[in-house]
Amino acid sequence: MEDQEMAIAERLEAAASQMERALNWLEERSSALSGEVEKISATVEQGLREAELAEKLAAAEKEIAELKASSAASVLNPQRRTIPSTTSEMLAKHGIGDGPVDVRTLDAALAGLSLEQRIAVKSQLLRAGAIA
To answer: Looking at residues 109-124, what average pLDDT do you find?
Structure first.
């Protein structure tokens, strides 16, 4: 019996030491889990990010070029192509027709008008694309 008691005592000691180790491991684990969370930072691969930014830049530059081209076209081809009837009647009295108007002829025709009126007539003709 003494041998059995010794074997049981050894087994109990082994179990107690294993339980002690498990307890220590659990304490370490719980302190690690319950501790403060350190700052987490992520890094993005530079090559991927740079390629993405270069693609966006190329798209933006293309869009800017298209907008510049469309705005230049609208300046060269204004939307309004008609001259007010009063302006066309006044020009017809001085022998200026519907085609492009020579600036010298226009200045001679507008000589009787005030400065503001001359500017208004010239701006209307310019918007209509009638000034050569």
So the answer is: 83
